[in-house]
Amino acid sequence: MIPGSPMQRVPAAAHNAASSIHVAHSLANALDALSEWGSAGAVFAGGTWIMRSPIRHEPLREHYVAIGRIAELGAVRIGTDVVEIGPVVTHAALAAALADLPEFNVLAAAAGRSANPAIRAMATIGGNLATPGFAAADCVPALLCLDAEIEVAGREGRERMKLEHFLQIRSTLAPGRLVTQIVVPRSERKTAHARLPLRKAGDYPVAIVSFSVSVDAAGRVQAARIAVGSVEPVARRWERLEAALIGRQLDAEGAARTATELAEEFVGRDGVDAPAWYRVSVLPSLVRRAAAAALGA
């Protein structure tokens, strides 16, 4: 047991032994606890995914480390060149912090429209990123299209990596490591987030398109980053569509037509909410919506 650690009980599934939770008072204390418990421990922040483990028939971990009281992990710092986001910042708080920054419309929309108000008040940005089983996380494609970097810390030190790389390795990270910061560069760009839930309230989206472009004075695309979420098990950029838009006038209908031609590269995932083919089929319409929103149409 971590010296001086306050221990509490969290609800557990009937098939799982009661779990304990250590409320960390500093980042070092949290890393010590995670390192000591190894694979038997996990991070607890908003808890919106963990608390539904019994519904998914997944066992709880034996120990959890609560990081919500660590001040440095709960801040949004807006600088001249970058925005730094702590992992325990909630979706609601993130949407509010970015509301007056048009270049971050995509991330503000992703955070501000996800799930429902009760979940947005609890769910954290770090939880969205660090949960491999959550394919429909809104903030992941939004951060991909913003070229975000992720800082991961352990007892041995800190490491920063591109979000794309983090998504590839997150399920293999050694026990005792923790996402400590999301760093997003600032630039002049037009951004938008388009999602398709089957019902309006509280649904996870069956498909997501996050869109970021820089255009010249004539409206031609100079740079593009487009990310797709919820269609496949892991969100990823749509690099062929990005390349196809470079040098062209940004036009919502034209972007949708190009998306139709390129959509076959996606292999959709089947789920109780939607079949694989449907997720892929709606991508062109989401590209149209995202491009129109980015243009302010």
Automatic annotation (TrEMBL):
Short name of any one Pfam family annotated for the protein: CO_deh_flav_C
InterPro entries the record matches: CO_DH_flav_C, CO_DH_flav_C_dom_sf, Diverse_Substr_Oxidored, FAD-bd_PCMH, FAD-bd_PCMH-like_sf, FAD-bd_PCMH_sub2, Mopterin_DH_FAD-bd
Domain FAD-binding PCMH-type: 7-189
UniProt xrefs under PROSITE patterns: FAD_PCMH (PS51387)
Keywords: FAD, Flavoprotein, Oxidoreductase
Tree of life domain: Bacteria
PANTHER family xrefs: XANTHINE DEHYDROGENASE SUBUNIT C-RELATED
Protein name stated in the entry: Molybdopterin dehydrogenase
Source species of the chain: Bradyrhizobium iriomotense
Taxon lineage: Bacteria, Pseudomonadati, Pseudomonadota, Alphaproteobacteria, Hyphomicrobiales
